Structures are given as structure tokens and as C-alpha cells.
Amino acid sequence: MATINFGGVEEQVVTREEFPLEKAREVLADEVIAVIGYGVQGPGQSLNMRDNGFNVIVGQRKGKTYDKAVADGWVPGETLFEIEEALEKGTIICFLLSDAAQIELWPTVKAALKPGKSLYFSHGFGVTYKEKTGIVPPADVDVFLVAPKGSGTSLRRLFVEGKGLNSSFAVYQDASGNARTKAIAMGIGVGSGYLFETDFYKEVTSDLTGERGTLMGAIQGIFAAQYEVLRANGHSPSEAFNETVEELTQSLMPLVAENGMDWMYANCSTTAQRGALDWWKPFHDATKPVFEKLYNSVKSQEQAEISITRNSQPDYREKLEVELAELRDSEMWRAGAAVRSLRPERS
Ligand SMILES: NC(=O)c1ccc[n+]([C@@H]2O[C@H](COP(=O)([O-])OP(=O)(O)OC[C@H]3O[C@@H](n4cnc5c(N)ncnc54)[C@H](O)[C@@H]3O)[C@@H](O)[C@H]2O)c1
Ligand SMILES: CC(C)(O)[C@@H](O)C(=O)O
Ligand SMILES: [Mg+2]
Ligand SMILES: [Mg+2]
Fold it and tell me: Does ligand 1 have an atom closer than 6 angstroms to the CB of 129?
């Protein structure tokens, strides 16, 4: 473990220098890694591991997603199987169904978890909320997680570009005495940049907060609020969209990603810097109570309950699609589609 100073706090992280791909391949040399589910994380993780030289198979029920797996080069009967068959063949079971679907499939997965096998998650959800999910792994299997901090789509794209997402890892149960090493080897295998250690509870709590907060929920809320104010004051959709979203994603966030917030500020006018330095605090003060409410709702398991109940309904996909369509069909995001189509690289 390398000791890294994160803003004054020292943490131990695993880097690819100290745990190279070669070592990960050695650790997992005798394992058959069965990726169960081919939604978003399934393709990213399985393709990266396959390209990294691991022995990987995919388990996916028949349908559109199965066909996608075939198109991605997984071969039926050789590296692509029905879920039950993949569970049988795998020694490390990567449980990458949606969190709600994991509940339904758990009895089947549990039956396949013979002593000595490992159960791998990419979220702390299933076992942390075991009273709600019923996911209680047998005592004689290793249970660990690697949670890439980003979409499976980005995990794959960055890997192909020779880059990587950072991932957290955690061990829930160490039956073999080797669970932590296996978890790290899996983290390197799926294409992580560096790996930071956590536990299942902290992973699920921070993850649910982040995606409801700044990563997805809060950002849409703030975009919508500013766009509405600009529109109500006579600004055109293109002016409002450019000043709310397009400039952020195309110009300013890449600067933040490159070298931090002060670097982005420093590359804007002193007029902009003066205003931003004055206004970030009122935005902070206005939103902090909302973040506190959100964190408490995660902590009380209310968010887990909502997620399970809503995503277990037979028509949950259709209902999500209606809500996504509402976003897509809003004036702001329709303006966004028009703005994107006019980017020089797209025209
Ligand atoms: N989406 C991400 O990028 C992301 C990022 C980090 C962690 N995670 C975690 O990774 C895990 C997988 O998430 P995901 O977003 O890739 O999942 P997903 O919602 O894309 O679903 C994955 C698969 O589940 C299958 N499925 C759904 N219901 C099923 C059922 N009843 N029986 C059998 N198969 C069923 C689908 O066919 C699909 O292949 C979750 O624990 C999630 O929290 C996801
Ligand atoms: C990609 C995210 C938001 O980080 C992940 O947590 C998810 O649930 O999809
Ligand atoms: Mg999440
Ligand atoms: Mg996440």
C-alpha cells in the first residue's frame, strides 16, 4: 500500500505500480471469473478483464442484452452462457445484475456458491441491506467488492484509451484468508486507476449519496433552476443552455478535471472569478441542508427501501423510461440536443 496525502489526510491506497497486472493475473490464474449480468458494469468489467488476459465468462439471460454480448465477441457455449450454467462454471461470481434484480436471483446464486468460491459485488447494497434483500452469503465463501467510481461505459472507454477510473474495494467475508488479495487483483483486472479501501456500509452510503447529489440529482436540479431563471427573463433557449450546461461540459469541467477548481477559475476573467468567489458560498449554504437531508435519508435506509420497492415492480423499466423521456423532452434538453448537433465535430 502506498501512503498518499489527500489534502492533509494520509490514506493507504493500492497503485498499479505496487500491484501490477502481471501479479493480478498470477493471483487469479486458476479462477474462472463469471460475470453475471451484461447491463452497464457487466460489459465494461468483463471486456476489460478479457483484454487483460483473465479467464472470463459471461452469464446473461437470453434477449437483447445476450445478443449484445454475442456482438461484443462472447461465444455461446464457450464464454457466454445462461446464468445458471455460468454460475456453475464460475469460481468467482461477479454479481452484476441491477441491485433490485439481485434479490430475485439470490436463491439461484446462493445454491451455486460451493465452498471455496468467491462472491464479488460492485456495490455494498445487497449485503448491507440484507434484512431487505435477503442476501446473506454462506460462511465458506469469500465476499468482496470492487466498485468503479463511474459508469461501466466510461470504465470501458477509458480502458481502451489507456486510462482508468478509480475504484473502491472492500472485503465483507474472508473465508480463504486470501480475499483481500483477490479483491485487489480483480480491481486491477477491471481496469482501475488506483484502489482505495472501504467497507460495504461506507461504499453504499457514499455511493447512494453521490449519485443522488452532485453527480446526478443535484446537478440536474441546479441546471434546471438556472435555465428557468434565464428563460423567465427573456433569454433564448440557446443562450440559456450554453450559459448553463454546454460551456460547463465543453470548456470549464475539462479544466477542473485537469488541474482543479482554482485552475479553472484562474483561466476565466477576473470579473468571473470575483463573482464566482462571492457566490459559491450562498450556493453552498442553500444546498447543504438538502445534502444533510439526503444523507440522513440514505442512513435511515429510506433510499434503499425506495430503490428496492420501485425497481422491483414488473413495469419499472417502462416507468423509468417515462421519467427519462420527461427530461429528454424538456425544453432545456431539447435545446441541448440542438446545441450538440451543431458542435463542429458533429456537423
Ligand atoms: N451502472 C454503473 O455504471 C454502475 C457503476 C458502479 C456500480 N454499479 C453497480 O453494479 C451492479 C450492476 O449494475 P448495472 O447498472 O450494471 O446493472 P443493470 O441495471 O444495467 O442490469 C444488469 C443486468 O441485470 C439483468 N437483469 C435485470 N433483471 C433481471 C432478472 N430479474 N433476472 C436476471 N437478470 C436480470 C439485465 O438483463 C442486465 O443484464 C449494481 O450493483 C450497481 O449498483 C453500477
Ligand atoms: C455510475 C454511478 C452513478 O457512480 C454508480 O454508482 C451507479 O449506480 O450507476
Ligand atoms: Mg450507484
Ligand atoms: Mg457510483
Answer: no
